[in-house]
Amino acid sequence: MTSVIIADDQALVRDGLRLILELAGIEVAGEAVDGAEAVALVRAARPDVALMDIRMPRMDGIEATRRIALAGVPTRVLVLTTFDADEHVYEALRAGAAGFLLKDAGRERLVEAVRTTAAGETPLAPSVVDRLVGHYVRRPPAAVGRPPQLEALSDRELEVLRLIGAGRSNPEIADELVISLATVKSHVRHILAKLALRDRVQAVVLAHECGLAGAQ
User: Fold this and answer.
1) Per-domain residue ranges for the chain?
2) Taken in order 71, 75, 81, 86, is the CA torsion positive or negative?
3) Amino acid 133: pLDDT
4) How do beta strands 27-32 and 49-52 pair?
5) Under CATH, domain 3-125 is a member of which superfamily?
6) Which CATH class name applies to 137-209?
7) Is the pTM here over 0.90, yes or no?
8) Which regions in the chain score pLDDT beneath 50?
9) 189: closest CA among 208, 203, 174?
């Protein structure tokens, strides 16, 4: 069973998140009201995922994420916040966040994001992808043929990379391409290895830099 801790300074938010997650069969291993409590709880409970708010007293979610990333625990941090301003997105990702969702994402997307984060993926809200791309990527002019840096990829891997660039999760890619989730995961591993990319965030940026994410 996937386990998670919830870090948010608002009790009503924590209660709502706990209800959604427990109804979906996800174990809530504890709650924290600030980043310092979250770090201590992660070290003690070692959950699969830490669901982390950004703006909290005493220690904010970005510093807590940074400390969790350095703590040598298997816990992956999923940042959940009402703010999608650039500095929050980039600071959280640089601190070691595995994913970033807004609080208005809806129940199904929240549950899916927790599960995919626990499975080693990098869920990013569509608005976060847009801001990430807008900040880091200079869109190229329309090109004919395959960009040279993508020559190592098969046609199917190119299609998977295009969907990664559009912010799709692995289950969404599997549904769209009518292939198994295991096959999608295999394609993603091959893409990252062939292109020497560190993670899914770098794949998103590259897809847009190559003009692939907007291609059909």
Assistant:
1) 3-125, 137-209
2) positive
3) 62
4) unpaired
5) Response regulator (3.40.50.2300)
6) mainly alpha
7) no
8) 144
9) 203
